[in-house]
Amino acid sequence: MSLVEGGFGWNFVDGIDEAFATHGYCANDHWIVRLKESFAIQGDGIGTMHPNSKGHDLMGKKLVDKIVQDFYPGNDCSNPRRPQYLLADPGGPYMVLEGSSITLQNNSYTPFDDPLSYEWTLSADLLSKASLDNSNAKNPVLKGIDDATGSLSLRVQDSTSSNMNSTTVTVINVPPTVNPIQDDLVEHAGFFNKPVNFTGSFTDPGVLDTHTFLWEFGDGAAASGNLPANASKTLTSSHAYVYAGAEIAMYRIALTVTDDDAGTGRNELTVTIRTAQQAALELSSYINNLPDSCFSKKAENQRNTLIAKLQEVLLSINAKRYQDANNKLLYDIRVKADGIVPSEDWITDRDAQNKICAYIDAVVSYLKFLQGQA
Q: Which of 19, 213, 319, 371 has an alpha carbon within 20 to 30 A of 76's alpha carbon?
């Protein structure tokens, strides 16, 4: 009662005396309990002169009408009157993602013109899990660091008093994001038995999260490991696909990263693995399908001659004469499409030159690898 009186003051409810004036103890329609009625109701006379049910109904209606008028100006129940005392209101509850920030509400109120001071405090559950940019600001910025739930208190002080209230803060885990996987192949096409180098990376706004990673190479092989919170988020791995009889095969590589809150990120890449013979046939098919405008002159003759030279390369590979195949590729085919001496180029289209040279360089590198394996 003292809090209400001090904050809101007393209000007189009028209309009650006037109503009871014609419904007194002796009135036929009386709103006062008579002595006889008190004994009948409760067995003694103590209830005498108290309001009966009709009197209570009238008093209740008058009180409710006055309360509505007092707390809801204009009888608008959606717009309550603000309290007449200092109130700390931190807003919330708040939810913030790891690595994200939000500006805190502050609905604190004082009916006076006193300047207010503010003190925001995070509970022990949120220490190192969230941070405030300025704990004495009216509307500080709250940053999520690591998943946790705790309380946030706000103490407000004016020249004569202070008030404190609390709300809840939840920092929500954000799963890692795995970026596109990179390889060291030409157009994601490699060769059997020669290791392919893969590079993957990921981001995670949860700077305190630890992680596990899993490489899956699409042929049943896998590689995994653990990463502490401060570890590099760039991952590398190498894998060789064993020749099993097919000239060409496709494999789907996946990198999955999981944080310590079971948040998961994943990305995939498909590579084509083939034999050197298959690569030579692909290059032959590519040249065969080039339009005449890609050739310097007599397109049909140049096209057929290059295809014939690639057939010689294919025969050398089949015979495991890898050096002969490389010599033919480098000094009899590539020089006719490398753009170094334009007058000697048979292939003059720049895009076609780039593709043919990239193909030849990949095959040459693979044949050198096979030479080293022999």
A: 19
Comparing C-alpha atoms, which of 125, 130, 156 is closest to residue 141? 130
The mean pLDDT of the chain is 91
Interior angle at CA 373, CA 367 and CA 374, nearest 5: 90
Closest by CA position to 316, among listed 271, 371, 256, 255: 371
| Side-chain-facing half-sphere of 164: CA atoms under 13 Å | 8
Q: Dihedral through CA 18, CA 19, CA 25, CA 27, nearest 10?
A: 110
* Residue 28: Cβ within 10 Å count: 5
Cα separations in angstroms, 359 against 185, 230, 286, 362: 10, 40, 10, 5
Q: How far apart are CA 72 and CA 28, in angstroms?
A: 38
**281-296 pLDDT, tens digit each:** 999 999 999 999 999 9
Query: What does DSSP say about strands 248-259 and 222-227: parallel, antiparallel, or unpaired?
Result: unpaired
Question: In one letter, which amino acid is 331?
Answer: Y
Q: At what angle do helices 299-318 and 276-288 cross, to 10 degrees?
A: 170
For 127-166, letters b (16+ CB in 10 Å) and e give eebbbbeeeeeeebebbbbbbbebbbebbbbbeeeebebb
Q: Which domains does the chain have, with CATH numbers?
A: 2-75 (no CATH), 94-172 (2.60.40.10), 177-273 (2.60.40.10), 276-373 (no CATH)
Q: Would you state the structure tokens that stand for residue 324, as one six-digit string?
A: 């002969």
182 token code pair: 């990179």
Q: Which of 133, 245, 193 is nearest to 369 (CA)?
A: 193
Q: Is the dihedral of CA 273, 277, 280, 285 positive or negative?
A: negative
For 167-176, give one letter per residue: b (16+ CB within 10 A) or e. bebbbbbbbb
CA dihedral angle for residue 293, residue 299, residue 300, residue 303, rounded to 10 degrees: -100
pTM higher than the cut 0.85: no
Tell me how crowded residue 325 is: count the other CB atoms within 10 A of its CB: 25
pLDDT (tens digit, 9 = 90+) per residue, 227-251?
999 899 999 999 999 999 999 999 9
